Fold:
Amino acid sequence: MHADEAETDEALVGRLVAAEFPAWAGLPVRLVGSAGTSNVMYRLGPDLVVRLPRRAGSAADVEREHHWLPRLAAALPVAIPVPVARGGPGEGYPYAWSVFRWLDGTTPTPGRPLAEPVLFAWDVAGFLAALREVDPAGAPAAYRGEPLAERDGSTRAVIARLRGAVDAGAATAVWDAALRAPAWQGSAVWLHGDLQPGNVLVDRGRLSAVIDFECMGVGDPAVDLIAAWYLMDAPARAAFRAALGRAADDAMWARGRGWALTIALNELSYYRGTNPVMADTARLVIDRLTAEDSPARRPV
Structure:
């Protein structure tokens, strides 16, 4: 998926675990199927999962995750990953890595309605409300959360690169509307930063866990509104916005649309030849965003 990606397999994970955590040596190791782009996961026995960064940039986040995830977990209404051990480079693998408790649930299929879409939307809204209330003192800046204007040049460039693959005019209209929205004037708050299908777990149609906090930190909470287009169809989006209330006013919603667009465009550009799941999800998001602005198309 990436030219500089570290190679891993089940045998390597077994050796890493045996070398650092002898009590877990001999537990079965099984690759967890995922379209994830930053880390690869291997289930370790029935109750644990080993998470190995694919690249140096993701490895730099291991220390931050070990510091902040236990603190966030205590304040949130659904389960999140809490690290139980940290490993180091070895056996030819160059990065720090983590062991987490296994969280049950399934990732939703992009574009396929959930069993309880409105209840799921309320669940996500409740998660975000709780996350925004966590004390931000000492928290790092999120990877996303800066003013959208700082991404203007790169976003227009990727729209140009994707001309023919996407409706460039419609995408530009969504982006222009987002840039016209008033900027965030409040204090920076905690955000997840990447609420996509691969980063949430559901059980019987309800949100059961939020995973992969690699982009976490403080910033403009509009970033987390990408969940509306990555995880929800039109009726669920309406329920999600209603549940958020004043936390999703017109300006916040417009910036959320802008964030969803710029993230999806960049994912489509980068992954369309290497990760079909990510690319197809990005196309779905772009279609949902542009359909909302076109009276000739029905929102999806």
Remarks:
- The chain has ten helices and nine strands.
- The radius of gyration is 19 Å.
